[in-house]
């Protein structure tokens, strides 16, 4: 069904209106689900979306609509759509847009705005939900903002907004639609854009030469590699180069964790960083080497970096990139596979990777055995297609850094913007993606940001298991005060009875005291149930060595570089 037809099969002959054309463009772009909260301004979209065959999942706060769209986009790689109403509704979704921006999530925030006939540039006239420049609220946190100025443009602007959100490097886009345009006739659109591979044969030959001469290559993969879906070619190139594969948080699972060249501990731990330090060449695929992954750029500038990136500025903005191949990573790597000869030391490299993994994991277990129990449960006791959605909490930091998925897009972690309160609403999106059950890891503080979304999960009958680690505190901050010898001020929390709270939403819940067998049994049952459920774990974990307070180890790196301007 599309916007031009009506339920029941009858065809309406009126020219398509703005809101119908919007829904039709989204459906044509493959959108089948959106997340929204209605207001009198955007209410027509509920009808036109239903007519276009797009389900709208109703959330309890516009911020949750943004996070859910982001969760959906991360789980599927497809466009996540949030619908919010004018003014306060639009303002409420700004935070989620900032989070989506830092990970390059293709999200479209569609907000209504006051009518063009009412607006007077720069003047606050006092219309319902009016603000002077709604798009400007989004400018610093979105990849782009579009405001539709006339009904004639609604189709073209919608198409352009979708293209900009989804084209590499993807990112969240704001689309503002004045309400008078939604009810105005809207004409048909133009053709869409295509992606281009810009790497020249000469540049590729130069890279092959350097890689062929290098003794120790390390492959580093980031979120851009996931966007390019180049896991098979990454594994082939690493195999030919006899190179360990280091992954950023975003790229986990692009090459399965049990591949013998995959380093399963995060890059910032000393055992793994040593591989980076010892490399003649680091082949960086789809990563900007951001602060979080490099201990705030304290990791040394490698001898030679070859970057494959869709954006040359992104490739060299933090570390000097000696050679850059601009283009679609999968296409560039396919050419490299054809041109490279296998290196002789593959067996030695596999054995080195095994040793590094063993050393890093046994150090982690020694530090915090409970965290490794949790990680083992999430790796071996849940279906392999499970989505892990993490919050900014100590347990989330462990899972974000050490998760071992077999496939990409299985770990959604808001570390880019450091967004507390992300996980619970984002799970609405991962569950709507229907790519497997979802496990949320959230602290008692982050949970309270979005308690209302328990109602959404219950109403959607979402296959989401919420693991609340209740330490009755903003635990990470309490740790920071403790390690600095400061009194505990502002960090202790009065928390509700999470089990009773969940049960009041008709969500099954249990309480356990650690990540032992009782937790594992509840986790297994929860992820198999196909329904929302909650496990409250009364536990306190030591933060992992990757958290900023711990990872910026003073004096370890001798050639610390700052960001390259
Ligand atoms: C929007 C936002 N506000 C505040 C913070 C700062 N912050 C980071 S972690 C944290 C504590 C989270 O507490 P909780 O959810 O209970 O998890 P725990 O640290 O106890 O594991 C806070 C307040 C943030 N990252 N984001």
Low-confidence stretches: 1-11, 189-196, 554-560
Mean pLDDT: 92
Widest beta sheet: strand line-up:
2-1-3-4-6-5
**Count the strands?**
17
Taking the alpha carbons of the first and last residues, their distance comes to 51 Å
Using only C-alpha atoms, the radius of gyration works out to 24 Å
Number of helices: 24
Classify the helix fraction into a percent range: 25-40%
Largest sheet: 6 strands, parallel
What ligand molecules are bound, each kind once?
thiamine diphosphate
Give the amount of beta strand, in percent.
Answer: 5-15%
**SS-based structural class?**
alpha/beta
- What would you call the quaternary organization? single chain
Report the principal-axis shape. Answer: globular
Q: How would you describe this structure in keywords?
A:
disordered N terminus, 6-stranded parallel beta sheet, 565 residues, single chain, 14% strand, alpha/beta, binds thiamine diphosphate
Helices and strands in order:
Blueprint: H1 18-28, E1 33-36, H2 44-51, E2 55-58, H3 62-76, E3 80-84, H4 88-92, H5 94-103, E4 107-113, H6 134-138, E5 144-147, H7 154-166, E6 173-178, H8 179-182, H9 201-213, E7 217-221, H10 223-227, H11 231-241, E8 245-247, H12 270-278, E9 281-285, E10 305-309, H13 312-316, E11 323-326, H14 329-339, H15 346-367, H16 369-380, E12 387-390, H17 394-402, E13 411-412, H18 423-433, E14 438-443, H19 444-447, H20 453-460, E15 464-469, H21 475-483, H22 498-504, E16 508-512, H23 517-529, E17 533-537, H24 548-551
Parallel strand pairs: 1-2, 1-3, 3-4, 4-6, 5-6, 7-8, 7-9, 9-10, 10-11, 12-13, 12-14, 14-15, 15-17, 16-17
